[in-house]
Amino acid sequence: METKASLSRIVVIITALFAALSGIYLLVGGIWLAKLGGSLYYIIAGVVSLVTAWLLYRRQASALLLYAVFLLCTTVWAVWEVGTDFWALTPRLDVTFFLGLWIILPFVYRQMAAKNAFARGALALSLVFTVAVLGYAIFNDPQVINGTIKAADSAPAKSDSGIPDGDWPAYGRTQGGTRYSPLSQINDQNVSKLDVAWTFRTGDLKTANDPGEITDEVTPIKIGDMLYLCTPHQKLFALDAATGKEKWKFDPQLKPNPTFQHVTCRGVSYHETTPAAEGNAANGAAPAVCARRIILPVNDGRLFALDAETGARCPAFGNNGELNLQNNMPNAVPGHYEPTSPPIITKSVIIVAGAVTDNFSTREPSGVIRGFDVETGKLLWAFDPGASDPNKLPTDGEHFTANSPNSWAPASYDDKLDLVYLPIGVATPDIWGGNRTPDMERYASGLLALNATTGKLAWFYQTVHHDLWDMDVPAQPTLADITDKSGNKVPAIYVPTKTGNIFVLDRRDGKLIVDAPEKPVPQGAAKGDHVSPTQPFSKLTFRPEAKLTGKDMWGATIYDQLMCRVMFHKLRYEGTFTPPSEQGTLVFPGNLGMFEWGGISVDTDRQLAIANPIALPFVSKLIPRGPGNPIEPEPNEKGGSGSESGIQHQYGVPYAVTLNAFLSPLGLPCKQPSWGYISAVDLKTNDIVWKQRIGTVRDSSPLPLPFKMGMPMLGAPISTAGNVFFIAATADNYLRAFNMSNGDKLWEARLPAGGQATPMTYSVNGKQYVVIAAGGHGSFGTKLGDYIIAYALPDAKS
């Protein structure tokens, strides 16, 4: 008995020591926070913890009464700060609650010098009250919007796109980027029965020479009975669509190195010859070589045309099926110019753009957009966004304009208007723009519409003026004919942006369909730079209207949440478009954006958009040039950092910059969840119909916890006529299916690696399949792999 009592006293002393250390931490941190203008709560919490520690050490039962009052007040304070958001309440209450639960247990309470039933009962009631509040919060999430949009009044309209229902012949299925399939064999009634139909391993995995940003972002395309896809190293595979068996492959022998900013391939493009040639084949003549061809972009600046039947090079295209996109390119260093997205292909023209290394220097390749003859590879036109005459073709010895704004995300095409719509970025370096010329600013950070046959400008709409935040247009825009409130059909284009704004324009002339008024934004640029006085803000947006405050800061516990609040108050932040600074600026929406390269999915029959915005702040900090921060790169420094985060050199301008997600000392986001949503927008009214969190921390936390908090995503949803949409994308390894009408989850499948890609769906031999690339994303931190997985319904039993 003596030994048991001694152990109990030791437990009480350890408990008192924990409370004392906690109190010291909270008191010191709370004073620091208060001096920065933050909440006084942590000072109070620190004092109470210290007094509780002293009373426990003295074995006074009044410790329980004091703590009961403190826990009750803390719970009320937490609800006052963040309402009934369970995950926002958690760091405010977790340690506080469990310490209260601990000291009420018999082996602690019985060590009190004088028992006090009232004090113990009061603490028990406070604990019950806290549990009740958290229980209510679990089922009453203020971030969720529950709504329903009715099903289509009739069967899907017959598409005039000419695409067979069972095919997916372009990155977004159509070159208008709808990511919508008219297939309905898999629907909201049977999707739960989906199972793996086949799995294909590409064998393409990360090598020692790859940068951190190696990503498997491919969306395969399907034509007839063949599936075509590229791997991160741009190996091209042709598979049997029914079985997943390899038909042929082509390896361009990419030789990356760690200075490449990316190693990725989002997809390939497809082209067929004219009907006349098809007629000859139908009359018994052998099909022409490369009558059907696959166009493959390669990260070192090459473009291949390959026979879709055999994988052989198209001999009449360029140099035996190969184009060198580095021709007439300034600063032609491998990895500085990377075509990572599939080109647009019209009846006669291949339209190619590419990524330019962000934030490395002022001597980068050009962001020029070019049109090549689809049969021969001959250069037909160019549009150089940074040139005084964008359409001027360089003569011998001349180059396109260095550092001109680039277009790295997938483009869209309207064949009736013969207009190609290109998302445009900003002249690099991105985070300081004091040296940019008017020509460099003219077509930066916006949507560019060009005549696809001639390359001539049709119109341009700028989504960010004098962009200092890397807020380029990051996603394929989506074309949809929408019925407005007056009953008129409007040829619209939807432009998702990193800021969370979705700009809605008339795709004929670029005029706004949904208002986007110019609003004042924070001023005060870094030395030598300036800030636009206003920016456009679309009325169709997922951008939070309210500014972040200390109340929005988060952590796994009260301790790291306190540090996040301190860090928040030390940064410069005055809302969206707060200028970069030497102090350090909180960028929200962050550099990763609310929308990224995935874009949105639009059911044009129901006029319903499915979106998956994310909400993850970043921090940018300008580093003035000085000793150890040279204005020029070292002679042997051939590329950037191999990443879009961390130190970015910005050689040639007065500042380097660090870019990082805004994380706690434990590596968790400092902004409270959700960090990712799925949502539906009624395009007839532009109202958000429903919104749900998506994704768990299963693959992000030390323990495989299935907590649905709402995770960051890279990739897009696809929707179908079966009232089902599919999405992977999240930082956990799942492919999921949801009801389009209300957002209810219908099915999920565990993936063997990260699914940071957009799925697709097709049918062959009367059977519908859903396919996802599960290869992971290096800088996103998901597991890498080499899987292509197809799912289908089980065959009917005879």
Automatic annotation (TrEMBL):
It comes from the Bacteria. Residues 625-646 are annotated as: Disordered. The chain crosses the membrane at residues 12-34, 40-57, 64-80, 86-109, 121-139. Its cofactor is pyrroloquinoline quinone. Keywords: Cell membrane, Membrane, Oxidoreductase, PQQ, Transmembrane, Transmembrane helix. Pfam families: PQQ. Residues 168-770 form the Pyrrolo-quinoline quinone repeat domain. It is found in: Cell membrane. It is a multi-pass membrane protein. Belongs to the bacterial PQQ dehydrogenase family. NCBIfam families: PQQ_membr_DH. This is Glucose dehydrogenase. It comes from Hafnia psychrotolerans.
